[in-house]
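Hi V.,

Quick status before I head out on leave. The structure for the redesign project is tokenized and pasted below; the design run finished overnight.
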């Protein structure tokens, strides 16, 4: 019996030694120390022993049990430590690795130009006004001195929704709406950026939908020279200090007198080249003194108040500023085109 116990001890310790993980170790525990294990078996046979032998054998059996159990506990500590170490090793973070780049988008070039123009006018004391894109015929035309049947309505082919409602063809209806809100009291000093719609065939310079920025100043003693000075500041800030502007007489039903405004060609410095078609000048916007009829219809006394208005197309401004040759680039969203403007402030 003594030999058998020593044998079992050797066997068990050997198995503890080679156990590779906690699972195997537990199997050893169950096998040798469990109720159905061989040591229990041996102890059961104690009944056949003499009274002197019994305590000796009992003590030995306990010692064997103790030895195996201690070995298992020690091994368990080692295996647990190993498991933690392994986990830590596999989860190590190398803080010296370069980070994964975060993809950053950029604002659309048109948005940038619009924001630049907005900033410029906000700096001159203007506020931003907005109006609906689905507009009433009244504000888009009538309140702007374009009664029904007026031939100049044809200058802007329109998308009508009903007889009285259309997609606005310009941002000028926001002038009429804003003036109405002022109930005959100045000053009014606004710019109105927004989308406009015209029944045009799309090509390199035309689009059925584009953007405009309207400007309007109404107050006592507003003169044509104020308009010219304002646009001069705008052109120089937008295109460069060396650029000049010139005003050409033109016609808009809602302004009198009306002008078309040119900026000197940045390509040839005004000498004439293919960009400016040999004239040295490039048209950038329409403007004029607010027509007395428009002031009156919006509730302003045209004997007390005068004003100027202008309307420009940010696409055109952006095309001139960045040398973009086709308006469709703004809307087809080719990332190769758009990415070029990422760095543009
Ligand atoms: N609304 C005009 C257009 O779209 C532009 C303009 C605005 C002209 C204001 C004069 C004054 O063509």
């Amino acid at each position: 019996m003594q030999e058998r116990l020593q044998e079992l001890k050797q066997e068990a310790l050997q198995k503890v030694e080679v156990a590779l993980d906690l699972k195997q170790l537990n199997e050893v525990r169950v096998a040798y120390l469990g109720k159905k294990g061989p040591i229990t078996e041996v102890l059961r046979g104690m009944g056949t022993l003499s009274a002197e032998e019994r305590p000796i054998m009992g003590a030995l059996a306990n010692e064997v049990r103790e030895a195996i159990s201690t070995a298992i506990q020690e091994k368990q500590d080692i295996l647990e430590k190993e498991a933690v170490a392994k986990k830590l090793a596999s989860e190590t973070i190398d803080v010296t690795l370069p980070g994964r780049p975060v993809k950053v988008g950029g604002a659309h070039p048109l948005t940038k130009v619009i924001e630049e123009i907005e900033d410029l006018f906000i700096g001159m004391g203007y506020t931003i006004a907005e109006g609906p894109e689905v507009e009433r015929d009244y504000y888009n035309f009538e309140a702007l001195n374009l009664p029904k049947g007026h031939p100049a309505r044809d200058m802007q082919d329109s998308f009508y929704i009903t007889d009285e409602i259309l997609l606005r063809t310009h941002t000028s209806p926001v002038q009429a709406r804003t003036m109405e809100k002022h109930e005959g009291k100045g000053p009014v000093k606004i710019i109105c950026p927004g989308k406009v719609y015209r029944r045009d065939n799309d090509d390199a310079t035309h689009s059925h939908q584009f953007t405009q920025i309207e400007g309007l100043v109404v107050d006592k003693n507003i003169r044509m020279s104020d308009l010219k000075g304002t646009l001069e500041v705008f052109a120089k800030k937008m295109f460069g200090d060396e650029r000049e502007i010139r005003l050409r007489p033109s016609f808009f039903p809602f302004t009198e007198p009306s002008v078309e405004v040119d900026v000197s060609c940045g390509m040839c410095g005004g000498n004439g080249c293919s960009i400016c078609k040999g004239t040295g000048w490039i048209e950038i916007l329409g403007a004029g003194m607010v027509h007395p009829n428009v002031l009156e219809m919006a509730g302003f006394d045209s004997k007390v108040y005068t004003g100027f208005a202008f309307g420009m197309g940010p696409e055109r401004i952006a095309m001139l500023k960045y040398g973009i040759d086709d308006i469709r680039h703004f809307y087809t969203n080719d990332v190769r085109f758009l990415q070029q403007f990422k760095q543009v402030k």
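Above is the designed sequence. The chain has two domains: 2-90, 110-341.

G. will cover questions while I'm gone.

Best,
W.
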